[in-house]
Design brief:
Blueprint: H1 11-18, E1 30-36, E2 39-47, E3 53-58, E4 63-66, E5 68-71, E6 75-80, E7 90-94, E8 100-104, H2 115-123, E9 134-140, E10 143-151, E11 155-162, E12 175-176, E13 182-188, E14 195-202, E15 208-211, E16 218-219, E17 227-228, H3 240-248, E18 257-261, H4 263-266, H5 280-294, E19 298-301, E20 305-306, E21 319-323, H6 330-342, E22 346-351, E23 355-357, H7 377-380, E24 381-382, E25 387-389, H8 395-410, E26 416-419, H9 422-426, H10 448-464, E27 469-472, E28 494-496, H11 498-508, H12 520-523, E29 534-538, H13 550-553, H14 558-574, E30 578-582, H15 607-625, E31 639-646, E32 651-657, E33 664-670, E34 676-683, E35 688-694, E36 710-712, E37 723-729, E38 733-739
Parallel strand pairs: 18-19, 18-30, 19-22, 22-26, 26-27, 27-28, 28-29, 29-30
Antiparallel strand pairs: 1-2, 2-6, 3-4, 3-7, 5-6, 7-8, 9-10, 10-13, 11-14, 12-13, 14-15, 14-17, 16-17, 20-21, 23-25, 24-25, 31-32, 32-33, 33-38, 34-37, 35-36, 35-38
Helix pairs in contact: 2-8, 5-6, 8-10, 14-15
Length: 740
């Protein structure tokens, strides 16, 4: 029975609740055993801002008791003398317009976070924190709903708001877990597709601001910024064969040829309409077909994590766990990656743990204080980019980032992560002038916390996914980037070879008549080729901001620009190291990359562009077919100079070698437009040599200067070898020859 009513809470407690001031709402709301006039009474309290009337419904007893309104803002209480905790009940309310709602009471549920979860998150070692924080669909005692949790240690109070409570701040205050700084609340009968945010009241000024969920799995389409409840487990993967094979095979001695893609501008439904993106599903049809036909082994996707500004190309991420809604739902991205795997294509995701934007709804000053970022801008701000650097010294931040890296590998089956802007993480003075940065405890410029984080990240990823690639975009001479941490390295698998890229493009941009004076720009790379596990890259960074496209960097007339491009790509694929090429370079884009529109696919109507594309397709096929071109990319065993000293004629020749003695290719490059007749090259063995690829072939738009038929060695010593062959070198051309 309901007792004679006398409120069991003070006016101050009620006031703090309805005004979103209460730090511990669980001490007030929900079921509580109290002593009233010497008797134990069960008090059930609820804050229902929209309610005109409310009841406690006991389904097991098929009875309903009206609650007493004790504050006009919607604070209700019922007292039951014949019930004890635990109790199964629901709260029913009517809003006066005829609308009636009945739900389980969120404050009647125990915590879903174990002390061990809290310990691991606080220690920075929880590898699956995304399964505990954010919005996770769960079943509690047979009731479906969403468990919300967020880290906001300096907040006075936190609530979750959405359509389910009409975005009323404080309608669902969250419960803080001890000193962990983590707030949680289970909302029964909230389901997939609900839009939500966290309302946070700062401790200092009492300001209230809405923040998107750092762990959100899905978000609204820009310019909207709400998080969306999402069931990531609903997608059924079909790439078992790929995943099993990936787990068995090391990628290091395999061909890796990466096609770097910006999904929003690879192709548009309407070429110049920014609102007509191809969806993940549509890209799965067109993009995969193209990449497979071109012979690339992998795609690298420029950041697909949710970002507010198109102009950032995805490199200023706000929602690290949510794929951008520009192209569809999370399950649609899963479909794209799944179809890549089913077609034998690996997927590498660009990942940005170096910095994040200052958007007020995002990570910046998340709970009213610098939480994910440093308080001191001399450490925590990148003024050049207008962004904030992560505070790697905070355990919870490390847990957030490492969990995020594993999240994309586990939930989206990514085959690798390319870490952007590693140099900005390693150096405290990166992009900062004197007086704008703080030395480390040893007086140096190395960011010791970031170094520790990167080592932990790489070791953790490799322990969980041994054959997944972690790639560093690191632009300095930091030693041991791709060496194991136990050997003093940072632990990455691969590093972008920015030196090779710079020297190669600088050399190719020169008129061939001057190239002999810059011969060392080509040959110097072999002095350091094995100091790291390198990827040779012609990335998006080389075709923006006035740098011109690869084709347009090349000197000479129309024909020579294409010949130089074919020579450049052939030299790239012959050189030790894995390969990466940005979209548009594959068919000779004239203009710089413009993220606001589609690539200029209409250029393929012109023969030279179509033939350049065909040439690159055949280079990729050669790269896959011959072990000599990929088996020893990181070892001296795979390369041998024949001659690097013919600077006068701008010719180099070398061998690429595989594990088997018969895996041997001869590569000769002529960097001038002058054909070289009877050019003698010393070879390591006698017999027959056959030209297997010539960049000057007419089918590629070349002049057709070829070495037709079989080339028999002669016992003429040359280049320190007992046998040699006489070759015809095509103008601005590269030839590949195999020994029979």
């Amino acid at each position: 029975m309901v007792s004679v009513f006398a409120a069991s809470v003070t006016g101050k407690e009620v006031g703090r609740t309805v005004n979103f001031e209460e730090h511990d709402p669980a001490s007030i709301l929900g079921p509580h055993m109290i002593n009233m006039a010497g008797k134990q009474v069960l008090a059930i309290r609820a804050f229902l801002p929209r309610a005109a009337k409310a009841w406690v419904h006991l389904p097991d007893q098929d009875r309903k008791m009206e609650m007493t309104r004790i504050h006009s803002a919607g604070f209700f209480e019922a007292q039951l003398t014949d019930q004890k905790i635990p109790i199964s009940y629901r709260v029913v309310f009517a809003d006066g317009s005829g609308y009636v709602e009945e739900r389980e009471d969120p404050y009647s549920y125990a915590s879903a976070l174990s002390d061990f979860d809290l310990y691991l998150i606080g220690e920075g070692t929880h590898l699956r924190s995304y399964g505990k924080l954010g919005a996770n669909l769960v079943n509690r005692d047979g009731v479906e709903g969403v468990h919300f949790a967020v880290w906001a240690p300096n907040a006075r109070s936190v609530c979750v708001v959405g359509n389910f409570n009409h975005w009323k701040i404080g309608a669902h205050p969250m419960i803080v877990r001890g000193t962990s700084g983590i707030w949680e609340l289970f909302l029964p009968r909230v389901g997939e597709g609900e839009v939500y945010k966290f309302g946070i009241k700062s401790s200092s000024l009492g300001e209230i601001f809405l923040k998107t969920d750092p762990y959100a799995f899905q978000t609204e389409l820009r310019p909207h910024t709400g998080a969306v409840v999402c069931n990531l487990n609903s997608y059924k993967w079909g790439d078992d064969e790929w995943m099993v094979r990936r787990g068995r095979e090391s990628p290091f001695d395999k061909p890796i040829s990466i096609y770097e893609v910006h999904l929003g501008s690879w192709k548009r439904k309407l070429a110049n309409n920014p609102n007509e993106f191809l969806s993940y599903h549509e890209l799965a049809d067109e993009l995969i077909r193209y990449v497979k036909e071109m012979g690339f082994t992998h795609m690298e996707l420029m950041p697909v994590m949710e970002h507010p500004l198109d102009d950032s190309w995805g490199y200023q991420v706000v929602n690290y766990f949510a794929p951008t809604s520009r192209y569809g739902r999370p399950q649609d991205l899963m479909y794209l990656i799944d179809k890549c795997h089913q077609n034998g294509i690996g997927v590498i995701l660009d990942w940005v743990p170096a910095h994040f934007p200052k958007d007020e709804y995002g990570l910046a000053d998340f709970d009213g204080t610098p939480l994910y970022n440093h308080a001191d801008p001399r450490i925590g701000e990148h003024r050049e980019w207008g962004t904030l650097a992560f505070n790697y010294s905070r355990n919870e931040v490390r847990a957030f980032l490492v969990s995020n890296a594993l999240f994309w590998l586990e939930k989206y089956h990514a085959d690798g992560l390319r870490i952007d802007a590693v140099a900005s993480m390693l150096y405290l003075d990166y992009g900062r002038r004197d007086g704008e940065w703080i030395p480390n405890k040893n007086g140096g410029k190395e960011n010791l916390e970031a170094i520790k984080f990167l080592k932990y990240l790489n070791d953790t990823v490799h322990s969980q996914y041994p054959n997944v690639l972690v790639i560093a975009e690191e632009s300095t001479a930091w030693p041991g980037v791709s060496r194991p941490t136990k050997a003093g390295g940072l632990g990455f698998d691969l590093k972008w070879n920015m030196g090779w890229m710079h020297d190669t493009l600088e050399y190719f941009s020169k008129d061939p008549i001057y190239r002999k004076h810059h011969h060392s720009e080509l040959t110097f790379s072999m002095m350091y080729a094995y100091t790291e596990n390198f990827i040779l890259v012609f990335s998006h960074d080389e075709v923006v901001y006035g740098k011109r496209s690869i084709l347009n960097k090349m000197p000479g007339d129309y024909w020579q620009k294409f010949a130089n491009s074919r020579l450049c790509y052939g030299y790239m694929f012959a050189h030790p190291g894995k390969k990466l090429l940005f979209m548009g370079n594959d068919f000779g884009q004239w203009d710089e990359w413009n993220f606001r529109q589609s690539l200029d696919w209409h250029l393929l109507e012109q023969p030279m562009h179509r033939q350049l594309q065909e040439y690159l397709k055949h280079v990729n096929q050669l790269h896959r077919q011959y072990d000599a071109l990929h088996q020893f990319d990181f070892s001296y065993e795979g390369f041998e100079w024949i001659d690097f000293s013919d600077w006068e004629q701008s010719v180099i020749c070398f061998l690429r070698k595989g594990r088997k003695s018969e895996d041997l290719l001869l590569v000769v490059c002529n960097f001038t437009p002058v054909p070289r007749m009877n050019y003698r090259v010393g070879v390591p063995r006698g017999g027959i040599w056959t030209e297997i690829l010539n960049s000057d072939a007419k089918e590629y738009g070349g002049s057709g200067v070829r070495n037709l038929g079989k080339i028999r060695t002669e016992p003429i010593p040359f280049h320190g070898r007992n046998n040699s062959i006489s070759l015809t070198l095509p103008p601005l051309g590269v030839i590949f020859l195999a020994n029979e």
